[in-house]
Specification:
Strand order of the largest sheet of chain A: 1-2
Helix content of chain A: 55-70%
Helix content of chain B: 25-40%
Shape of chain A: globular
Oligomer: heterodimer
Largest interface: A-B, 53 and 54 residues
Strand content of chain A: 5-15%
Structural class of chain B: alpha/beta
Strand order of the largest sheet of chain B: 7-6-8-11-12-16-17
Number of strands of chain B: 17
Strand content of chain B: 15-25%
Chain lengths: ~350, ~450
């Protein structure tokens, strides 16, 4: 029992990442009708915003300490960061320690700009083309972004620690009356889950309760009528693309302490997020969120040793098996509606 | 008057003639092309004043950083062979056959290929270097899958393969080849070196939980660690295979604490190792007391480049390495290598760079000693060859399986690193006798070297 609770907790967390990426994918598909294979790259770019912010905060100057030697036997160059130098060691250290939350704030304008540049510069030219063309061009774009990141940051993962106070783990089991160490969970993952819930809630509230959101929803339902009413729906959809980019980006920033950022992490999540979107139902926002958590939890449960021993390899195929079953029973996905991507 | 070069050419011709005759009688009907073609005695026989080496490393993909460091070392080795730079480990190498005038008087040039850490891409780039660029030998590889694939290609093509980063037992076990040579240590040696050190440090009454990368290297690493820790009295609670590149290992790590295990052994490498180790530390495993003992994590195969990725998470964690630049404290050869590499590139070399450099020098030296580039002569010169002064102390290339035998380093994550380069510290050196095994050891059984193949 405790093992299952543990895996559900794990799944919530994995599911949060899937749901956040899938949410953006669905927004883009629902508004612009584009299948964006570069969405995983946006998640990865977000993680690298965290890396960059940390690097900027730890930019340092060198002073020579003649009493110590470096690896070649020359006097050791000691590095002091500028933030420590300017703001004093205490506040400087605090800034470096909190680099991930700071990066979330930095990522919002950065990701919005990247999103707009992507949409205005490239993807807009493919609205009238077939989905196959869109998939090819966005997939190509993803590879280009990936290689650029690798050129500047290398291929190995780069560690980005969470703030000191969120390191370590929390014993959930004791709360629920299980013995010690039965259910432990890292603090940062709890933070991630909470963060994801807030972001998802925020996006829904934005679409539900603002005029802008209402117009966008109207545009998603019937683009032509909204245009005839004199509303520049394209501009709003561009903004929605930027919003989707921000959601993927900040999801990536917050994920950096969980999974050291590397140039390939976008691709790792992209395929699964697509499965999530399809299972949830193309164009359905609640569907994407629901399917994200569902598949995240199923994947976690399938990686329990007892299950792998029973059915070897189940951990690697479970998501696809479930996707097949759901699509056989509900061809439009869990919450898909008639008429979406069926023209 | 004969110049030195002329004499060398003559010597070479005679030597080659002898070998050619030997090959013709020995191989008999198996090598009919040798008579039909008659143009060359063996694949890519160098005719001009230059000889081409083929450096086949991952330049893209997950191991690109290792590949880049290997390539730096290969370039350094070529410089030293051609008499440029400070000569590096040529000055400390026990063999004095190499004179800094290239190899057999021919200037060394090189071509590079990108393995992408994929077996098929690695075979294609090796084939292209052999067929189009005329490479006389191939060296490189990160990942055992790649090394094994390229090794068998080189066997078929009739060129020598000097393996660099490959740690699976199979490379010199069931997949060994007459044309393949490995300087790097292997999973068995890691286990043999780590077992006693772990028992000393953590006690004999321990229960281990393995997470293992789901491919050839992972399996041999897991089997070796299991064997050697159980030999010390440890119990294995569970071994769980994890998909390659899983990214998030939380669902594999979370159940560990509740399994009754008090040690987690991570048979992972590369990105997987960085992620699983970082996440295991995040789950607070190392802060826990289980069965009345401090919970511990072990990473059997370490790499400094990977340790950089894991950051603080490596502190205090045991593993093993083929070589570490900190050996320079007591070893003149390592010091010479760190100096020439460090001065050229500005940072100390990784173990990937070390093995790449050493393998290139060993090949060139074997050619020089054999007096010929003929693969059969080079193989003969390398088999059973004993040398020193290349950073690992005395080493032997065992004739039976082409595996180098030498001391193995047990390293530990440095608690107080002074720079990003000394994240690992050398904890102990396990002498060769403790990690040696018979060629027919159960972990290496099956397969055969086969025969020397001079190609066309």
């Amino acid at each position: 029992m405790d093992a299952i609770i543990l895996q559900i907790l794990n799944g919530l967390d994995k599911g949060s990442a899937y749901a956040l990426i899938a949410l953006g994918l669905t927004i883009i598909f629902g508004t612009l009708g584009v299948v964006n294979f570069a969405h995983g790259a946006l998640f990865m770019l977000g993680a690298f915003v965290a890396v960059t912010v940390r690097r900027v905060l730890t930019l340092s100057f060198e002073t020579i300490d003649p009493t110590r030697k470096d690896f070649l036997g020359n006097p050791l160059k000691v590095k002091t960061t500028y933030v420590e130098h300017w703001f004093g060691p205490d506040f400087g250290q605090w800034l470096i320690d909190w680099s991930v939350p700071i990066a979330v704030i930095a990522a919002i304008p950065v990701m919005a700009l990247i999103g707009l540049a992507m949409e205005r510069g490239l993807i807009r030219h493919f609205y009238k083309r077939s989905h196959a063309d869109q998939i090819l061009v966005t997939f190509g774009l993803a590879i280009v972004i990936q290689e650029i990141i690798k050129y500047f940051f290398g291929a190995n993962p780069i560690p980005v620690p969470a703030p000191e106070m969120f390191r370590g783990s929390f014993d959930f089991g004791v709360l629920l009356g299980f013995p010690e160490n039965a259910i432990i969970y890292p603090y940062w993952r709890l933070v991630y889950f909470g963060f994801a819930a807030v972001v998802i809630g925020g996006v829904f509230a934005f679409l539900q309760f603002t005029t802008f959101g209402m117009v966008v929803r109207a545009g998603m339902a019937d683009r032509e009528t909204v245009t005839i009413l004199g509303i520049d729906i394209d501009r709003r959809f561009s903004i929605m693309f930027a919003l989707a980019a921000i959601v993927a980006g900040i999801a990536g920033v917050m994920y950096a302490p969980i999974n050291s950022p590397n140039y390939h992490m976008g691709m790792d999540y992209l395929v699964l997020s697509f499965v999530v979107v399809v299972v949830g139902g193309m164009g359905s926002l609640p569907g994407a969120v629901l399917a994200g958590f569902l598949l995240g939890i199923l994947e976690s449960i399938a990686s329990m040793k007892a299950l792998i021993d029973l059915i070897p390899g189940i951990n690697q195929v479970i998501i696809y098996l479930v996707a097949i079953v759901i699509l056989l029973i509900r061809p439009r996905g869990l919450m898909g509606r008639k008429g979406v991507m069926e023209d | 008057m004969d110049t030195r070069e002329d004499i060398m050419t003559k010597l070479q011709l005679t030597r080659r003639g002898v070998i050619k005759a030997g090959a013709a009688t020995g191989a008999g009907l198996a090598m009919p092309t040798i008579f039909v073609k008659g143009a060359a005695a063996y694949t890519n026989e160098p005719k001009g004043s230059e000889v081409v080496f083929g450096f086949n490393v991952p330049q893209t993909g997950a191991y690109a950083d290792e590949g880049a460091d290997e390539l730096r070392a290969y370039k350094l080795a070529v410089e030293h062979l051609n008499g440029e730079g400070d000569g590096g480990m040529l000055n400390t190498f026990s063999s004095k056959a190499l004179k800094g005038n290239g190899v057999l008087g021919k200037k060394v040039t090189y071509v590079t290929g990108d393995t992408q850490t994929k077996s098929d891409a690695a075979r294609a780039s090796a084939r292209s270097m052999i067929e189009k660029d005329g490479a006389i030998m191939i060296t490189g590889g990160s990942s055992s899958g790649v090394a094994i694939a390229v090794q068998s290609l080189c066997q078929e093509a009739g060129v020598i393969f000097m393996a660099a980063l490959t740690h699976s037992n199979d490379t010199t076990g069931k997949d060994k080849k007459k044309h393949g040579f490995r300087h790097f240590f292997n999973a068995y040696m890691s286990g043999a070196a780590l077992g006693p050190v772990l028992a000393d440090a953590y006690g004999r009454d321990r229960r281990a939980y393995h997470l293992t990368a789901d491919y050839t290297w992972g399996y041999t690493q897991e089997a070796s660690m299991k064997y050697f820790t159980e030999k010390e009295g440890w119990e294995t609670v569970a071994t769980v295979r994890t998909p390659l590149g899983a990214g998030d290992f939380s669902s594999y790590i979370a159940p560990v604490l509740n399994s009754g295990a008090d040690v987690l052994i991570l048979n992972h490498y590369g990105r997987d190792m960085v992620n699983s180790l970082t996440q295991a530390v995040q789950f607070g495993l190392r802060d826990k007391i289980v069965n009345g003992k401090q919970f511990e994590i072990v990473v059997p195969l370490y790499s400094r480049l990977m340790a950089q990725g894991a950051g603080d998470a490596v502190k205090g964690i045991f593993g093993s390495q083929n070589w570490n630049w900190q050996l320079q404290k007591d070893d003149a050869a390592s010091r010479a290598f760190v100096k020439s590499f460090g001065e050229k590139y500005g940072f100390p070399p990784s173990q990937a760079a070390h093995v790449a450099y050493v393998q290139t020098i060993l090949y060139a030296d074997a050619v020089e000693r054999a007096g010929s580039f003929h693969p059969c002569a080079v193989i003969e010169a390398l088999e059973g060859y004993k040398f020193d002064g290349l950073g690992n102390g005395p080493v032997e290339y065992r004739a039976a399986d082409h595996q180098c035998f030498k001391d193995v380093l047990v390293v530990r994550g440095n608690e107080n690193p002074t720079s990003q380069y000394d994240l690992l510290e050398v904890y102990a050196t396990t002498p060769r006798a403790k990690v040696e095994y018979a060629p027919d050891n159960e972990f290496f059984a099956g397969g055969a070297l086969g025969e020397c193949n001079p190609g066309d």
